[in-house]
Amino acid sequence: MNKTEPDLSFWAHWMHRALQLAYLADGSTSPNPLVGAVALDVAGKLVGEGFHARAGFPHAEVEALDQAGVKAKGGTLVVTLEPCCHQGRTAPCTEKILRSGVSRVVVAMQDPDPRVSGLGISRLREAGVEVLTGLLEKEAAFQNRAYIFRVRTGRPWGILKWAMSLDGRTGLPSGESKWISGSRARSWVHKLRATCDAVIVGSGTIRADNPLLTSRGISEPEPLRVALTRSLNLPFDAQLWDVKVAKTLIAYGPDALKDLLAKFPPGPEHLALDSTDPLELLNALAKKNCNRVLWECGPALAASAIEMGCVQELAIFMAPKLLGGVPAMTPLANLGYTAMNQVLFVSDCSVKTIGQDWLFKMLLPQLEV
Ligand SMILES: NC(=O)c1ccc[n+]([C@@H]2O[C@H](COP(=O)([O-])OP(=O)(O)OC[C@H]3O[C@@H](n4cnc5c(N)ncnc54)[C@H](OP(=O)(O)O)[C@@H]3O)[C@@H](O)[C@H]2O)c1
Ligand SMILES: [Zn+2]
To answer: Hey, what domains does the chain have and what are their CATH numbers?
Structure first.
């Protein structure tokens, strides 16, 4: 292989593998990024693979290089994110790479963390290692969109999910809403929860549906369940207060009737907020190491979260059903638009069939808040 003119399709093949490896820990690494790595020997043969499993565990580069051992010498390390060069909970990967004797590192993207951001790549280059950057950068950035967003903005990436009928209803005029989507769609939601650090609902959803909000054991630990309330007017026997299966946080605003707190069963954590502005909750969740949160609330809180720029992605199930009814519930309360040129345009829309339903996934424009 020619060192100065690498075959990009060869590296791309291995970068795809590294991205696949990184995905194995989707939802488990927060506040850290997803990272995958493969080590190739001097002849380009696979000699090691690794991924970052969770914060405090070895980084992907270390896993791959440990597996490769002396076979890494003179070879190439392909990694989805710039290797770290600072002492965190684990030692800097750049020094491990230098000790391994690899002569080339192929990196998909720079780490936005200011403690690394370009410094890892310079450290390797200064020590004489050839570094190729930007290979499958778009794919790598998409994979780590939650981490990148949290590092840049200080708050977690938000996904808003709802299920509706073909005529855009989320419930009957009577309020009945179980179930709009089918069992396959609901299992998909359990998997989605497993990739999130927290699942947020408003009191309206707790009062109406008494949800459990777990991944049904897919992720261990389960994501943090968050109840956001202005009033603390909540049922005292809700499933969410039983923290044997998953932790729960009750986040309440300044207008809440705080005397009610004593009536809840012990277990959930209580968090007093200065306001129930969704942004304030997200700032608090970022401090709890959340990279990605799932909004599973009703129309009132969903609209408020969108207005405050707290939703970056939508996951919408549409069921092949007609519910009808002018007063029936719709996914979003008023967003306050008065002209069509003000409304939100989504992008990157994809659709697939899950059981009897369609799943639409898309991104929302980044609102300035
Ligand atoms: N089809 C679906 O996918 C789906 C998903 C979820 C829910 N739902 C349905 O939605 C209905 C409930 O609707 P909802 O709108 O009342 O539920 P919600 O949005 O989950 O809860 C609204 C409540 O959240 C609290 N809240 C705290 N901060 C807020 C803020 N910044 N903005 C707005 N609200 C805030 C308020 O509670 P306080 O009362 O404490 O002031 C408010 O009354 C239920 O019938 C449920 O079945 C459907
Ligand atoms: Zn590292």
So the answer is: 8-145 (3.40.140.10), 154-363 (3.40.430.10)
